[in-house]
Amino acid sequence: RTLAVVCFPLGTWVGGMYTAACCRHLAAKGYRIMVVTPGSNRDEILRVVAELGPAFEQVVLLGYPPFVKDVVDAGAARGVDWSRYAVKVVLAGEVFSEEWRALVGARTGSTRPCFDSASLYGTADAGVLGCETPLSVAIRRFLAQAPDAAGELFGDARLPTLVQYDPAARYFETTDEGTLLFTGDNGVPLVRYHIADEGGLVSHDELLAFVRERGFDPKA
Prior knowledge:
Number of strands: 9
Largest sheet: 6 strands, mixed
């Protein structure tokens, strides 16, 4: 039983409304999810978690990374014991470091870092384009401790977002300038849509081979 707390702004902001609709869709399919939408009202989020959280097996906070951390810290300052709620976090809108993931995980009582948080990559135009998985999180955590390997793979010392995607739903290509194009069947079909996001593509097998050559087996 899951309490999904939508912490993205609501109203004209796409993130909150989109996330709430996704959670309601999952609930309609039979998943045991209850959705509450306090939006970016920190006090209301903490009130909802305190009053409803004990009735659920886990609480999922969905929001912008800096704001989710602010909620967690504010709750801890008010005496909230986050560990009793088996908190998970779903994040979008900004890249963050693995040190940040570990810090927030420690404050929420996370015991399985590859499973307790997931970041989404998307746009207002097309919704979610890719998402972190336990596999991608494990690989990113390894690369955070291996900067030489990360620089070789990504061509940059700064660790980017690393997500998996379904090419049947969203199709990605890269330009000669190192930016991404994507194609998707949305309300308005987007074909080779270019929003100037820097990035690249690595196949599943190539990435697994790359980290295994450096002594890391993420599936193990």
